Amino acid sequence: MQNNNIRCPIHPENESVFFCQDESCKDKRIYCHDCQRENSHMANPYRHHPINQISLFLEESQIICQDLLQFIEESFQQILQFKSQLISSITMKYRITIQQFNNMEIQSQCQVIDALINSKNIIKTIRKNMDNPFNQILEKIQDSIRDLRLEEVTYLAQNNQQFQNLFNQSKQLFQSNQYDQALEIINQAISIMPRDVNALNLKGEILIKQNRFEDASQQFRLALIERRNVQSLNGLSECYMRLERTQEAIQLSFEVLGIDNQNQRAQTMVNQLIY
Ligand SMILES: [Zn+2]
Ligand SMILES: [Zn+2]
Question: According to the record, where are the TPR repeats (predicted)?
C-alpha cells in the first residue's frame, strides 16, 4: 500500500514522512520534515518509522489483536464445555422423575433416595466452589471493558455514524424490495463493522429474498458467534427449512420459542415444519 497522500496534520501543505511509535509521545503521531526541524519527536528518535511502513504496522497490530480475541474465545469455549459436563452430571445423578423412579428396581430406588438425601451437601459445596471465582471473573471482564476506554475514542463515533447511515439506507432499500442495492449498501456497512449482529442479520434476510440460502445461513451463523439472538436463529431456521434440513430448522425455532414463546415467526415456522 502506498501512503504518499498522507498529509502532515500540523503542516497540511507537506506530505508526511514518518510516524512515531514511542509510547510516551504526546506529539501528533504522523509528521513531516518541517516538524522534525521544529524538534518535535526528539524524545526517542529510534521509534521513528518511515510512513510507508504504516501498512506493515497495521498488519502486525491486527495479528496481536487477533491473538487476544482467539485467546478469549478459547477460554470461554472451555468454560462452556465444562459447564455442559457439570450440568449433565448433576442432571443425570439428581434429576430423577417419578416415572423413572417407578420403573426402577427396589435396590435402585433405595440408591436414588440415598443419593438425593446426601445431595444437599454436594450442592452446597458446588455452589460455594463456583460463586467466588465467577464473581471474580465477571469483575475482571468488566475491568477490562472499562480499561479499553471506548468513550474516549472519537474515530469510532465517526465510523459509527457512517455505519449507521449505511445500515439505515440498506434497511430502507430492503423494505422497498430493492434487494440488489440493499445488498451492495449493507456490504459497505459490514466493511466498517464486520461483526455487527444487526448488519449480519440484515444481510442474511436480503440473501434469503434472493433465494441464496447457503450464503444467508453463513451470515446468520456469523451473527450467532457474536451473540445468541432471536433474529439470527429465526433467519437460520428459515434457511435450513428452504435447504430441506428440517430437523435443524425445527431445533432452531424451538430455541427461539424457549427464549420468547410468543415469537410469531418461530411459531409460523414450527407450524409449517411439523404439521
Ligand atoms: Zn509537519
Ligand atoms: Zn514521537
Answer: 163-196
